[in-house]
Amino acid sequence: MNKTPPSSKQTLATPTVSSQIGSSIIHSSLKRLTLDGNISFENIDYATKDFGNRYHFLPLAVLNPKSISDISTTVSLVFGMGSSTDITIAARGHGHSLEGQAQVRGGVIVNMESLRIAEMHFNTGKKAYVDVSGGELWINILHESLKHGLTPKSWTDYLHLTVGGTLSNAGVSGQAFRHGPQINNVYQLDVVTGKGDVVTCSDDQNTDLFYGVLGGLGQFGIITRARIALEPAPTMVKWIRLLYSDFSIFSKDQEFLISSQNSLDYIEGFVIINRTGLVNNWRSSFNPKDPVQASQFKSEGKVLFCLEVAKYFNPENKSNINQNIDAILSELSYIRSTLFESEVSYVQFLDRVHIGEMKLREKGLWEVPHPWLNLLIPKSKIREFAAEVFGNILTDTSNGPILIYPVNKSKWRNGTSTVTPEENVFYLVAFLSSVMPYSTGKDGLEHILNQNNRILNFCKRNELGVKQYLPHYNTQDEWKAHFGKQWEVFKRRKSTYDPLAILAPGHRIFKKAV
Ligand code: FAD
């Protein structure tokens, strides 16, 4: 594995295939495959990049599939070579992983976006759904669904990610408190296993594979089609932010909101430490209706907590919605002068992070290293966590948004591969740091990694029962600890569906035996 040292320039790893079958034989076997799409051996440097921008592995080839059979043929070829070669295969969605998870050194990348050829197939009946390619971007699914007056129920904050990429993790956003994560809102999958078999799976067909693949970090198969649950789409969103200076009151209100039968559609929150500016605000395009009041609010250097909620509506029932929201807000204990409201279209709301992306791209601040840390923290430990992290570790700086919001475990499907804390309610806390180019200071890579380690060490030392979301580890022992009692099932599924450990080597969970 080739990890870019904090201060050095990024370099491309040379492909190395140490195997009994030489790389030239593999090369010509791949070249001879009869495919609907094609396989490239040149101009494939883009496959060495991801959003994390810290790991860079050069593959041998990139498969641009035009059919499911292209993927199955390629996996079958590599499977057929047995353990005489260490060649492996990684599906690459939109490449928005953080630590090389969608990369493979000297192996084959499956460029899933090239499979986006089939038209999306909609069922607009009572149990509405859409069948999409595993390489489809969520933003495209949104636009197509809206043409039918429908929408998926559960989202990520950013929609320029593929279905296969988010379902391999969980797919969590402010709708998860009600609908569960995206892995809860899928009826059926088509999967190419590590043996090259094409398998349809669902709650009642090949269930073990279905549950394994959901949150399965790409370890058991490549998702080629997903059947996504839909509901009627609203047109507008009331988007509200409220500030708190006391974490206990903030989190009590968040927990109240996710537990009550109120009709909010989205509940998140974030931490404001000492700084504003583009890097901290890029996930949002929130423009309060009263910008003067918003700009006049002074935090006086204090750490603040912002509750963010949204209510979907159609213009014809706006007055009912306003009454309904007033009733909900009257139960909360935010700082009364800090109610900021905005009204935007449903698409603007869901695609809000993309606006920040475009601004950052203009300034050359999008393709920087992103040493993100995402944690799932049991409700009983969140106050202890917040006191140490926001009171001690991160007091003087923040290098990007810090999201924090609770979800109900009862809304998460049991038995998937995603690992969550043991309690009924847990928080997602996401430290979404960006490294400033050439910085060796507090916004440099070394400093941020150091802060991440301090946070992780604190959790470990105090046995908070925290789990990483979008997890990344270097050793199998760390993975075993991550999976805990789910490890045996995960291992058994690997040996059933990908016995040679061909798929998704970038997670460093299993190593192909040669
Ligand atoms: P890739 O990075 O291409 O792949 C990710 C992993 O999935 C790899 O291991 C890959 O091999 C595997 N994979 C890809 N496609 C398939 C497939 N078809 N079948 C099987 N395995 C596959 N996550 C959230 O939950 N909520 C958020 O709000 C959120 N916001 C984000 C915002 C930004 C700006 C970014 C960069 C990421 C965000 N994420 C969020 C994380 C994101 O969901 C994951 O990083 C996701 O894996 C990225 O999808 P991708 O299509 O880019 O996948």
UniProtKB/TrEMBL annotation:
Per the UniProt entry, the Enzyme Commission number(s) are 1.5.99.12
Q: Catalysed reaction(s)?
A: N(6)-dimethylallyladenine + A + H2O = 3-methyl-2-butenal + adenine + AH2
- Pfam families per record: Cytokin-bind, FAD_binding_4
- Keyword annotations of the record: FAD, Flavoprotein, Glycoprotein, Oxidoreductase, Signal
- PROSITE patterns, alphabetized: FAD_PCMH, OX2_COVAL_FAD
Q: Which GO terms describe its molecular function?
A: cytokinin dehydrogenase activity
Q: What class of enzyme is it?
A: oxidoreductase
Q: Which cofactor does it need?
A: FAD
State if Protease is listed as a keyword. no
- Spell out the family assignment given in the record's similarity comment: Belongs to the oxygen-dependent FAD-linked oxidoreductase family.
**Name this protein carries in UniProt:** cytokinin dehydrogenase
Organism of origin: Cinchona calisaya
